[in-house]
Amino acid sequence: MKKTKSCKFFIVPTLVLIAVSGFFLFVFTRSEIHYYLNQFHADWADTSFKYVTHLGDGAIFAFAIPLAFVKNLRWFFVIACTAVIVLLVTGVLKQFVFQGLPRPSLFLGEETLHLVPGVKMHTMNSFPSGHTTAAFAFYFVLCFLLKNKVGSFVLFILAAFVGYSRIYLSQHFLIDVTAGAILGVICGYMAIALISSWKWDKLDVKFQELKKANA
Q1: Does a structural domain hold residue 30?
Q2: What is the largest CA-CA distance in the chain?
Q3: Which helix (H) or strand (E) segment is 115 a member of?
Q4: How far apart are CA 103 and CA 131, in angstroms?
Q5: Digit-coded pLDDT (tens) for 162-207
Q6: Is-contact 143 14, C-beta < 8 A?
Q7: What is d(CA 178, CA 21) in angstroms, rounded to the nearest whole number?
């Protein structure tokens, strides 16, 4: 599967976001950054980010994979493969490599933070942000599939909002989210590279024939 020019509208702003985040992470501690960002809150933001964060749930794959199967085999395997890679990568890193790292509510103390009512606070396995990884991986591969410049930038905005929602809700530090964005794009690339050599034209023809036979 070849790259499309539209993907630069996802990749370039992602690289800028990572660079800016990296600068702040180099200059300030994760606690200083989190306290600073946590002071900016509002009722509308509490409500919005409580739901926006679900755009990075693993459930997005559970919802997207059946829809992709209806579309064609190419979409199905790209998205399904992305889901598997994200699950394996985040699972290994969170449960084994960086197991036990405290999240903001535990590390800083809930009493020092603005927390959104109704949001269950997690306390351990902070690094990396699984929601951010899933969001950047999922929306990145959609850039390859949709091949639309405006759509690619919109997908970046969605992924970025998911990442910020994890900080806003005090579920993760900036470093967790930044790492999640990097891992997400890498996971997306891995999924695309893994199946790029498949003979899609023949597979799509067989898939369409199978659908007609079962209709």
Answers
A1: no
A2: 62
A3: none
A4: 14
A5: 999 999 999 999 999 999 999 999 999 999 888 776 655 555 555 5
A6: no
A7: 7
For residue 89, tell me if it sits in a domain: yes
Please check whether residue 53 is in contact with residue 131, taking contact to mean a CB–CB distance below 8 angstroms.
yes
Decide: 184 and 140 in contact? Cβ < 8 Å. yes
Q: Measured between alpha carbons, how far is 120 from 57 in angstroms, rounded to an integer? A: 14
Distance of CA 23 to the CA centre of its chain: 21
3-48, pLDDT tens digit by residue? 567 789 999 999 999 999 999 999 999 999 999 999 999 999 999 9
* Residue 45 falls inside a structural domain: no
Per-residue pLDDT tens over the stretch 73-122: 788 899 999 999 999 999 999 999 999 999 999 999 999 999 999 999 99
The model carries a pTM of 0.90
- Show the tokens assigned to 104: 């903001």
Number of domains, the chain: 1
Which residue range forms the structural domain that includes residue 164? 9-23+50-116+133-201
From first CA to last CA, the distance across the chain in angstroms is 29
Q: What is the DSSP letter of 193?
A: H
Task: Name the CA radius of gyration of the chain, rounded.
Answer: 19
User: Tokens 């799509």 belong to which residue?
Assistant: 204
Per-residue model confidence as pLDDT tens digits over 186-196: 999 999 888 77
Residue 79 domain-assigned?
Answer: yes
